[in-house]
Known about the structure:
1 helix; 33-stranded mixed beta sheet; 16-stranded mixed beta sheet; 47% strand; mainly beta; disordered N terminus
Amino acid sequence: MKKQIFTTLTLLVLLFTAACSVSTGNSSTSAVAATNTTSQATQSSATASSGTTVEVTPTELDTHEAESDYTWNTSDEVNITLDGSTITASGSGVIIDGSIATIASAGSYRLSGTLNDGQIIVNSEAEAPIRLILDGVNISNSSSAAINIEAADKVIIILAEGSDNTLTDASDYVYPSADVDEPNAALFSKDDLTIYGSGQLTVNGNFNDAIGSKDGLVIRDANITVNALDDGIRGKDYLVVENSTLIITSGGDGLKSDNDDVDALGTIQITQSNVTISAEGDGISAEGQVEINSGTLNITTGGGSSVPFSDDSSIKGVKSTSSLLINGGTFALNTTDDSLHSNGSITINGGTLTLASGDDGIHADVSLEINDGSIDISTCYEGLESNIITINGAEIHILASDDGINGSSGSGSTQGGAQFGNIPGDPQNGGFLGIPGNGGGFQATGGSQFAMNGGYVYVNAEGDGVDVNGTGVMTGGTLLVDGPTNSGNGALDFNSFTVSGGLLVAASSAGMAMAPSADSSQPSIFVALDSPASAGKLFSLQDENGNTVVAYAPAKPYQTVVVSSPELESNATYTILTGGSSSGTAKDGLYSGSQVSNAQTLTTVTLASTVTTVGNAGVMQMPGRTGQPVGGPRH
């Protein structure tokens, strides 16, 4: 069937005129007024926590919508009255057979009343829309769907203002033959379907899905509650949700679009909607792109992040086989599996995301790009994971039981993302304490990439803080790492890590400690203490005038600290101190505008090279090998 692009401009014109009643003789033009006309597809911006305004421009989808879908002459309506086990109709176009009514002609049909065990069928070859105006209906069926749209150009279900409507299907369906398996949802459509209107709709899917379209599905300005044995709401080609409130409880996925045809991948788009999902499968799942522009999403999958799951289960918060795009919105996700997941790419341009995951907080197989917003990953195995990770902005907090940020392609023979070698190492050459640098030895072997160009990132990890099986660059922003306390991991783990800008402070144990690469253009200091310092003990640097360059109190015991800052200057002398207190304001252990008092001076150091190493924490023992001391200049 021919589909039309429902543009932003025509939608605004429609919604402006929808509240009016136009007299044409004895008839009137009727439409359901939008619940919030200012929050349609033209929602122009969302303010992220960083203070940056992100322009939200929803992708224009080629859907079945048209302006005329939402206007009709009330005088042309056919009234269908449901009364227990009987049905009556006020006009033509309806074929009644006991408790089953079949709508065979295009037009507008207003349904009201209760049908205890019956069905509304749409079966029309007309190339014009059919409107079902639900005005206080309660339809149940003991052997099939409540509403079954077998054939139509498209169907628009209008939820009449002030109405409360309920659809309930059977727990076991009776099909005419063994090779028939449709309908399979309480509200089922083989063709394009729209649900629109300010009334309430509750759909109970006792057999399989609650709402299912084998074509496209648009939900606009609607209030819907669904309870489903399997998937809650499914639109095969696309599922568009705008300015709506959805409450979904499902034994499978919550929202789903699953057309896997390469020319028509299933797409989900959500704009300015309140979506609450409790799912035993994925919260939101699409074969194509998932795009979330604005609104509020509360998603719980599998009982939450503390519930164990098997590797062959998919119990993710938001999942796309293709790409995931987040332009804004407020997210609260508590998921057994990854909170955000894409087999392709993820782009985050804004929004406030609070994530708790039993696996990865945010995972993309190919690439992850974060440009703005606020991201708080309170529980996860790994926080951010992708082959290519780019952070251009946003404020990010990660608490991970393994790696905080993991750049990995998922291929190659590695042990903890690294391989063994036997040449003495040097942290100032991109190597590890007691382990080789300069591209040899115990290093990541993959081609993954990490780039931090701006924003603010705090990582608290039990595994590696930032672990990239390849190369990393830092040109701006603030990166704070409270790394592991065990000797098998480090705050930083790269093949090479070049720093040319931004503030880097990374604290961890000594066993796998690493500094930026020697070809960095911004100076850095690598400090190894003789023995571990206690959690919360202040570490600070002062310049020759006694001004504090960095004051940081790691959240866990630490023995090494790496600092790279634009305030560090080559050939200048700095004092390294531990302990004492700071007069500044602390955020994630970093004090700003501070003066340090009552601290113990460890040493003074002149930055004679790009990476200056201070101290020697000894050696790291590995199976069958003896680690070597840190090479390079010491003070």
